[in-house]
Amino acid sequence: MRTHGDATVGAASAELLSAAEANASSRAELRELRAALSHIDAELGPLPLRALDDEHVQALVGGLRVAGLSPERERAIVSAVDTLRSQRPTGPVDGPTPTAAMLALGTRLATFASASVFIAFAGIVALAVITLA
Q1: How many separate domains does the chain show?
Q2: What is the per-residue pLDDT across 30-85, written as a single tens digit (0 to 9) for each?
Q3: Do 78 and 15 fall into the same domain?
Q4: Half-sphere exposure of 40 (CA within 13 A, CB side)
Q5: Residue 110 phi/psi, 5° resolution?
């Protein structure tokens, strides 16, 4: 399964289900996965896949337990979430990391400071030449 950095949980769920259907494991396993993913998609579908964390999963499972979720279905949901989370892309998606951005800013500031000192020194030398001439 290939997901993009901005993929939602719903899109990743659909892709996982499509891959499972193409690999056609048993009908019962496919039905169980489809049911688990429908619960996940209903609650967390619009959430960016990168943002899916333990708190989201706990809230999902906790809410479903209150509604009478069976232990087997809970295991299936947690397993499906684990599969989705393992497919998350790693690394930066929307530009540089905060550290890289700060290093780039520091480099620009150092270059600006060096150029400013050079120009100021050149101005002082020029003024000294004009004054002494």
Answers
A1: 2
A2: 889 999 999 999 999 999 988 888 999 999 999 888 989 888 888 999 999 998 88
A3: yes
A4: 33
A5: -65, -40
Cβ neighbors of 111 (< 8 A, separation 6 or more) are none
pLDDT by residue (tens digit) across 112-130? 999 999 999 999 999 999 9
Q: Are 49 and 120 in contact (CB under 8 A)?
A: no
Distances (CA, A) of 92 to 4, 69, 96, 97, 108: 11, 37, 6, 6, 22
Residues 101, 82 share a domain: no
Residue 31 lies in a domain: yes
CA-CA distance, 69 to 58, in Å (whole number)? Answer: 13
Instruction: Please report, for the domain that includes residue 32, its CATH number.
Output: 1.10.150
Residue 15: Cβ-neighbour burial (10 angstroms; 0-12, 13-18, 19+) = middle
- The tokens for 87 are 């497919």
pLDDT digits over 11-37, tens only? Answer: 999 998 888 888 866 888 888 999 999
d(CA 41, CA 52): 12
The identity of residue 88, as a single letter, is R
- The span from the CA of 96 to the CA of 93, in Å, is 8
